[in-house]
Amino acid sequence: MASETAPKVPVYSVNDLKTTTDDAVVAYLTTLPDPYKFTQNHLKSNVRFALGYGGVAIAGFTFYADRKLGWEATRSPWIIAAVVSYFVLNSLLTIWIWAVEAGEIFQGSRKTGEAISVSSSAKKHSPFYKLHILYKSSSNEVIQEKEFETSFTTWFSSEGILHPEPLRRWLAGEIEVLQRAAEENEKQTGGLSAHVGKQGGSKKKR
């Protein structure tokens, strides 16, 4: 049950619904009970931040030079190089986000060596949230690759409050390793406080 202080999301903003759901998916994968818990790999996000902050730093430097040193200073080779570097970094950032990350919201691994990659997408004015997962063994063999979707209304109330349990049940019903985690948790708790479980009704695309 959602907390009374849980923030509300604008129900007509697909971007806000997607971002909030993405965060909930990541939080869920990183708080599973051992040995199913995933540790997130931040390499791609670190590269994105480095490119982004690098561009911001260069923009700040050129702005300072223009304000403090005057127009003539901006014609120096150093300033020209900085401006070129700014556009190069921003181009690389765009390529990184769209071609390398490509909608990926989570990449992580378990202590046993299995790794999972999760990408999400949602179309403007569409109520559906789509996930693509790629789960590999420690030897890099594909255990499960799947694309599936369902409506945001599965876990968002009409007031825009996210209820995590329906989201977790949906994920467990589609992703095999999460279903195993749910079954193990149910055994340990006697079904009284199962962390996740099966839930049908989603649209699947394989």
From TrEMBL:
Compartment(s): Endoplasmic reticulum membrane
Transmembrane region(s): 47-65, 77-100
UniProt xrefs under PANTHER family: MICROSOMAL SIGNAL PEPTIDASE 25 KDA SUBUNIT (PTHR13085), SIGNAL PEPTIDASE COMPLEX SUBUNIT 2 (PTHR13085:SF0)
UniProt keyword annotation of Endoplasmic reticulum present: yes
Coiled coil stretches, renumbered: none
An example Gene Ontology biological process: protein targeting to ER
Record-stated family: Belongs to the SPCS2 family.
This protein's name: Signal peptidase complex subunit 2
Source organism of the structure: Monascus purpureus (Red mold)
Organism ancestry: Eukaryota, Fungi, Dikarya, Ascomycota, Pezizomycotina
InterPro entries: Spc2/SPCS2 (IPR009582)
Region (Disordered): 182-206
Keyword Signal: no
Function: Component of the signal peptidase complex (SPC) which catalyzes the cleavage of N-terminal signal sequences from nascent proteins as they are translocated into the lumen of the endoplasmic reticulum. Enhances the enzymatic activity of SPC and facilitates the interactions between different components of the translocation site.
Topology versus the membrane: Multi-pass membrane protein
Primary residence: endoplasmic reticulum
Cellular component aspect of the GO annotation: signal peptidase complex
Keyword list, A-Z: Endoplasmic reticulum, Membrane, Transmembrane, Transmembrane helix
